[in-house]
Amino acid sequence: MLHPLHQFTYCPKCGAKAFAEHNEKAKKCAACGFTYYFNPSSAVACFIRNRKGELLLVRRAKEPAKGTLDLPGGFVDMHESAEEAARREVQEETGLEITDCRYLFSIPNIYPYCGFDVHTVDMFFECLTDSFEDTRAEDDAAEIVILPANELNPDKFGLHSIKKAVTIYRYSHT
Fold first, then answer.
1. 155: helix, coil or strand?
2. pLDDT, tens digit, for every residue of 50-71?
3. Continuous H helices in 6-117
4. Any residues with CB less than 8 A from the CB of 108 and at least 6 apart, and which?
5. What confidence tens digit (pLDDT) does each residue in 116-129 have?
6. What's the Cα-to-Cα distance from 146 to each of 71, 93, 108, 164, rounded to whole Å?
7. pTM of the model as a whole
8. Distance in Å from the first CA to the final CA of the chain
């Protein structure tokens, strides 16, 4: 397995080409002594239920896994809590304003982005809303898909951590 910083050859502090593996998650510069620890990025994904028990899903508009089902979500921005990110991402992708957002669990993941493996900690939330009226596919979503929770099929989802989360969620809600 490649080191998570294998694509980084120059020290980000001094610019020297003396940036070598220090351990399984860090590189150290032999010139200036700077050690860079590679930590995962935070991401959120939301199971959104209405009063009828239906779930709002999206179809991915972009790679990776373009065209497959997904949960609304994305990366947590700087200076933003995971709950704020969940609300923002849901609003950006579906136009839906959620108010009730409850943390469920997390799954470590590797998200492929432009030839770079982004190590993430995906945090899953359950969000409740009265209805899915006026939702629309925007941003990274190509389509809104509404399904009863018992019809969730992990094989229809393209991203590994989402498939795993759907399996866990379905098992706990059927």
1. helix
2. 989 899 999 999 999 999 999 9
3. 82-94
4. 40, 119, 120, 121, 122, 161
5. 888 999 999 999 99
6. 11, 14, 27, 19
7. 0.90
8. 38
Give the residue-averaged pLDDT of 131-141: 93
Structure-block tokens of residue 2: 């490649």
Residues in the chain: 174
CA distance 151 to 164: 15
Q: Alpha-carbon dihedral of residues 107, 111, 116, 121, nearest 10 degrees?
A: -30
Backbone angles phi, psi at 173, to 5 degrees: -120, 15
C-alpha distances out from residue 132 to 12, 22, 57, 68, 120, Å: 46, 50, 11, 20, 29
pLDDT digits (tens, 9 = 90+) for 75-88: 999 999 999 999 99
Q: Give residue for tokens 């389509």.
A: 143
Residue of 17, 50, 46 lying closest to 31 (CA atoms): 17
Both tokens assigned to 66: 């373009």
